[in-house]
């Protein structure tokens, strides 16, 4: 009886080791798959972040151009108002307007 228990014990122990190694190998493989998936997901998110940052930069540049345009239009009205009020400038009436024509040169006739 003791010999049978001793003989079965190494086989049983070997079987348990094989099962434990198989489980550990499976866990390492599953872990590797998750690492690959996380790296893939990280790269996609990083590309998307770069796209959003480029779009943000483009929108900031457009916003700056619009602010300059708005200031330009505002300045035009201020210049006209100041010219009339401070410098007493005005558009002359048609009766006071004289049109001067310059003589054409031979190059302009062609």
UniProtKB/TrEMBL annotation:
Membrane topology field: Single-pass type II membrane protein
Gene Ontology annotations of biological process type: FtsZ-dependent cytokinesis
Annotated Pfam families: FtsL
Domain of life per record: Bacteria
Subunit structure: Part of a complex composed of FtsB, FtsL and FtsQ.
Family membership: Belongs to the FtsL family.
Protein name as annotated: Cell division protein FtsL
Organism lineage: Bacteria, Pseudomonadati, Pseudomonadota, Gammaproteobacteria, Moraxellales
């Amino acid at each position: 009886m003791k010999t049978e228990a001793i003989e079965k014990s190494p086989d049983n122990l070997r079987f348990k080791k094989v099962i434990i190694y198989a489980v550990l190998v499976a866990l390492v493989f599953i872990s590797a798959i998750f690492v690959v998936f996380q790296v893939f997901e990280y790269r996609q998110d990083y590309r998307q972040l770069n796209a959003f940052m480029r779009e943000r930069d483009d929108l900031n540049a457009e916003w700056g151009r619009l602010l300059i345009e708005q200031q330009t239009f505002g300045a035009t009205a201020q210049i006209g108002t100041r010219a009339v009020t401070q410098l007493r400038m005005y558009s002359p009436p048609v009766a006071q307007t004289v049109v001067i024509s310059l003589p054409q040169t031979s190059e302009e006739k062609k």
